[in-house]
Amino acid sequence: MLKNKIYNYIAKEIAKSFITILFTFTAIAWTVRAVNFLDLMVEDGYSVGIYLQYSLFNLSSIVTKFIPLAFLLALIISVLKLERNQELIVLWTSGVNKIKIANLLLLIALFVTIIQIFLALFVTPSTLNLSRDLLRNSNLMQVSSIIKTGDFSDSFKNITFYVEKKNDKGEMINIFIRDESNSLSTIISETDGASNTTIVAKKGLILQNKLVLFDGFFQSQDKLGKIKNVNFKKTEMAIDNFSTRTITSPKMQETSSYVLLQCLLNKNYSNIIIANCPFSKNKKEVVQNLSRRLGMPLYIPLISIIASFLLVYKKEKKFNFLKKYIFFLLGFFVLIFAEIMVRFSGISLTNFIIYFLFPIILMPIIYILLLKTIMSESKIQ
To answer: What is the b/e burial string over 122-143, where b = at least 16 CB atoms within 10 angstroms of the residue's CB?
Structure first.
């Protein structure tokens, strides 16, 4: 009963450190990323609500990236805290086996590994895809903030705006619009079939999700090269016809693991959209993404075994002082190696096998070395 309480206490200490470190890293990285996402409002005209939802949907990807490093730091800090408070000495003198503590750290690492795999394989791709759907299915609400005065604005796809100035009422003065994609033809019947359209107006404003223009003319050129001019006193264009240059099609990391696997196996079913990862072109990227999602978590148990060497105590004071730096750097180098190798995992089958076999082969070897070190320490004592 007493040992169970000890194990629960150690597990809680590691969990508290892990959650605190992970939350801190995630908060900092999310804040930086959220600042970068401000372009969605400033440049692309999406509402504040869309911006906040899009930013929140990216939280899962940040958490997933920081889990291995946060767990390594949590192990190092927790063990050193127990040692600094003389709690480890109490445990050893009370008969608690160091190997069982090492096994506890490994068990916690396996639990974190399962969480990491679940997040990386299912949650993160889904939330990132939801964020992309959010942009794709949202209407622009701040077109007036996108259109700058005294400068040509090409934030809209295939549409260029120029506004000389804006008055105190928010009305735009002396407007020039160049439409190269025939986006206006659904609103203006006179421009149907035009290959490009130019609109000039003396005044305009955004009203009820519509662009209202006054006193101007259309100049359209059809596919045969004939130019047609149409004057107007007032006309309206729906903002819904405008699309920004923001990428709305899902990227590789936003594609579900199931779709990527089907892409890798070159199985293109009618009910699966694999536009992002055609097998013949992006096989390397597909393998890299799947390796990152499934292979990176396998390195978490390995760093827990490395961190368990902190439990070993030697008479040399220099070793006891340096061990926290030594084993942290070893664990950190393992994570760096994993990050580097995942980028090369899609180049060849050999790299792919090395990436997955490295932690699987190294774990039992280092674990046996840990057992021998602890046993030899017990004999000396």
So the answer is: eebbebbbebbebbeebebbbb
